[in-house]
C-alpha cells in the first residue's frame, strides 16, 4: 500500500481567492458573510450569504469565451485546480503520465445558476430557445470533466455527489485510490455556486438557513443563539500523490493523508441521528487507519454548521469516538463561522484549513462564539486563533441524506 501526501492546494472562497489570503483571513477571524449582492433579496426571509468577492475567471487563467460556456461552479473548480496544480508542479507528459493522473471533484448541487436561467427561458420563450450548452453546463460531473480536459488527466475519475459531505468523500476516495495503486496522483475536491433565489428559497423553507440579517450573528456554530446555516460558495481543490512518486520528482510535501471514514446515518434525509453513532464511527474509522495513539495533539475542523441539531450531534459524535475525557482536550473549530457553508465545496476547503493548521502551528477560531450551548461543551477555540502545534488533524463533514465523512491528516516534519 502506498502512503499518500498532499503536494498542491487551491481555494476560491468568500474570505480569499487564493491560499495566502484565505489563510490570513481565517487566522484573523475575518467574516466573509455579508448582505446578498448577486440578486435582489428584497422580500426574502434570508438576506445574507457568503458570496465570492471580485472573482474574475480570466484572472484565474480561464479564457473569456470559454467562461461563457461554464457555469460558475465549473469556473471555481478550474480556478482552484490551477492553483493546486501550479503548486504541485505536476505536468502531464513530463513528470506524470495522463493515465496515472485522476480527477475526483464533486459538487453538491452542480450548475444551479444555469438551471435557473434556462428553466426561465424555457417557460417564457419555449423549449426551442433552451441553450445547446444547457446540459453540459448544468450536470454536476462537469467540474471534474473540465479539469480533466485542462490537465490531460485520463486516469480514474469520480465526481462524488453526497451533499455537504461531497468534497470530504472526494478526497477520501482519492486517498484510497492512490493508496491502492490505481493512480499516482489525483486532483480532488469540490465546487459550489448555488447562491441564487431558487436554492435560497428551498433551504429557507426546509428551515435550514438563518434568517438573521446581521452578518456577525447569522452563523454562530456551537453558540446557544445559533439559528441555521448561511450559504456560501467557492471551491477547494488539492493534489494528492503517492509519497514515492512525489519524492522521486522532488515535490514539496504539505502533509500526509492517513485516514478516512465513510458512513451513513440511514435515519433521515436532513436531520442527523440524535445518537450520532454512524458519524462517530466515521471519525473512529479515520483515526484507526491513521494509527492514532492516545497523547497525540489533535485538531478537528468540525462540520459545525450553526444548526441546532447538527452542532449538538457532532459534539456527541466526537465524544463517542474519542471518549469523553479525551474529547475535552481536543481543539475543535468551525471555519464555517467565517466562510459560511460552502455545501459541496465545504469539506475540501476545510481540509485545506486543517492542513494549514498543522503546517503553521495555528488553529483557526470559531468566531462569534460568545454564548456556548451547554450541549456543546468542547474546546471550540472561540473568537481568536490559537498557536498550538498539533500532530494530527481531522476534517469532518455531515451531509443531507445522512452521509458522514472524515479525513485524517498528519503533519509532515521538515
Polypeptide structure, described:
- The protein is of the alpha+beta class and 414 residues long.
- The chain folds into two domains: 4-248, Thiolase/Chalcone synthase (Peroxisomal Thiolase, Chain A, domain 1, 3-Layer(aba) Sandwich); 259-410, Thiolase/Chalcone synthase (Peroxisomal Thiolase, Chain A, domain 1), CATH 3.40.47.
- Helices cover 35% and strands 18% of the residues.
- It contains 15 helices and 13 strands.
- It has helices at 19-28, 64-67, 72-88, 112-125, 134-138, 142-151, 166-179, 197-205, 215-218, 243-248, 277-290, 308-322, 324-327, 336-339, 346-360; strands at residues 4-12, 34-35, 48-49, 101-106, 185-192, 234-242, 255-264, 298-301, 331-333, 362-363, 386-387, 392-399, 403-410.
- The protein is globular, with a radius of gyration of 20 Å.
- The two termini are 23 Å apart.
- The mean pLDDT is 97.
